[in-house]
Amino acid sequence: MKTLPLNLHPDRVPRHVAVIMDGNGRWAKKFGWQRTRGHRAGADAVSRCVEACDDIGTEFLTLYAFSTENWRRPKTEIEALMRLLDKFLKERTPEMMDKNVRLQAIGRITDLPANVQERLHQSIETTGKNTGVTMVLALSYGGREEIVDGIRSIVRNLREGHLDEAMITPEMFGKHLYTRYYPDPDLLIRTSGEMRLSNFLLWQCSYAEIVVMEKLWPDFQKEDLYKAVQEYQKRHRRFGGL
Ligand code: IPE
Ligand code: IPE
Ligand code: MG
To answer: Using CA atoms, how far apart are residues 232 and 228, in angstroms rounded to an integer?
Structure first.
């Protein structure tokens, strides 16, 4: 069996890591640059993070890239972010092919500009048969919105007679969420020191281990993922038991 970085325990690698990639704006500010430059640097950190997951055998990586609340930002920043996303998908899809990465997306994707949606669907399709890390981008994503969309889907099924009330359980509800194809995150990482969820994977993170690091997202290195996993491996996950 290959040895993992930092001597990580191969049997206890988180299957699914979720990341709140925060601090791009503050990173740019530190150098007196525009916030957008921080977002650009953040895109490189994404590649490092995916590589690090691949190194240790994490199967799913969900990245919070744009929240439903982020639509409240100035129009110029939103436009810059959408342009950057388009560019990211265009330029990095070959890299995803090289690294055997399968791209997926969750969120209210139809809120995104048409060109970005188009590009996203193309990249998802192109990488669809890859068997390495599944990278899930959360775009126009909100945990509460996702739960509400799940309720709507259940109500539709009830009305059409495909379901009855007694069939509604937590497991079943999970099948009506955007994340129905993925296991729940084992480890949730947030950069930039903020101790909050900011509406990310509210349902799915019920039992995720949380690691908050001070580093700003553009400074995130592969080592930081390994260190977070090392911290995760020290935790005793009880799931309410003893
Ligand atoms: C995270 O960085 C990226 C997005 C939310 C799109 P921020 O843009 O939130 O950066 P800070 O938190 O203001 O530094
Ligand atoms: C969370 O970061 C959203 C993303 C990383 C995409 P924010 O910067 O939007 O969160 P708050 O405003 O600090 O809670
Ligand atoms: Mg932020």
So the answer is: 6
Beta strands per DSSP E along the chain: 16-20, 60-67, 102-106, 134-141, 187-190, 209-212
Give residue-wise pLDDT tens across range 16-50: 999 999 999 999 999 999 999 999 999 999 999 99
Mutate to test the pocket of ligand 2, among 49, 70, 112 (most ligand atoms within 8 A of CB): 70
22 is catalytic: yes
Q: Do residues 166 and 136 make contact, with C-beta atoms less than 8 angstroms apart?
A: no
Beta-carbon contacts of residue 133 (< 8 Å; ≥ 6 apart): 50, 53, 54, 58, 59, 60, 61, 99, 100, 101, 102
149 noted as active-site residue: no
Give the CA distances from residue 90 to residues 25, 48, 51, 85, 120, in Å, rounded to whole numbers and listed in that order: 23, 18, 19, 9, 9
Give the largest CA-CA distance in the chain: 59
Nearest atom in ligand 2 to the alpha carbon of residue 66 is 6
One-letter identity of residue 222: K
- CA distance linking residue 207 with residue 37, whole number of Å: 35
**Residues 45-70, mean pLDDT to the nearest whole number:** 98
pTM for the full model? Answer: 0.98
Say whether domain 20-233 belongs to CATH 1.20.1630.10. no
